């Protein structure tokens, strides 16, 4: 009987953790700044996130593999930028960065797994990856990394 109760507690704890994680990531992504620097940073850094996002929202991106590769390249670039920009912690704390990086990886795996079976869910996962890259680019711009 004790093992059943322990299993229920563990399952409930994991479900609550997953809910907290998703809610926290979506809450971080929903924050707005007084000025959005995403477009300026994307242009200056050669990011394709805004193009990929527009294609996904319009339903034009049929090649999820290419979109995933573009997001990976942008994710690497924006992380390098965040590492170089002084004062980024004022706009995006280390804990927020960690949560969003983990969410980015989870959404990438989810998009890869669902691309063939459920393209709509893969598209949503890719859109969340776009939102994370855009959020990082905006934080870098707010910290003064690339203002135009």
| Structural class by sheet pairing and helices | mainly alpha
Biggest beta sheet summary: none
Number of helices: 6
Globally, the shape reads globular
Order of helices and strands: HHHHHH
Counted up, domains total 1
How far the N terminus sits from the C terminus, by CA atoms, comes to: 64 Å
Radius of gyration: 17 Å
Helix residue percentage: over 70%
> pLDDT below 50 for ≥5 consecutive residues: which ranges?
none
- Taken as a percent bin, the fraction of beta residues is under 5%
Q: Count the strands?
A: 0
The overall pLDDT, averaged over residues, is 90
Mind sketching the topology for me?
Blueprint (H helix, E strand, L loop, with lengths): L1 H29 L7 H8 L3 H10 L5 H21 L9 H21 L4 H24 L6
Helix pairs in contact: 1-5, 2-6, 3-6, 4-6, 5-6
Report on the structure:
This protein has helices at residues 2-30, 38-45, 49-58, 64-84, 94-114, 119-142. The protein has 148 residues and is an all-alpha fold. The mean pLDDT is 90. It has one domain. α1 (2-30) crosses α5 (94-114), α3 (49-58) runs antiparallel to α6 (119-142) and α5 packs antiparallel against α6 (119-142). It has six helices and no strands. 33% of the residues are buried. The protein is globular.
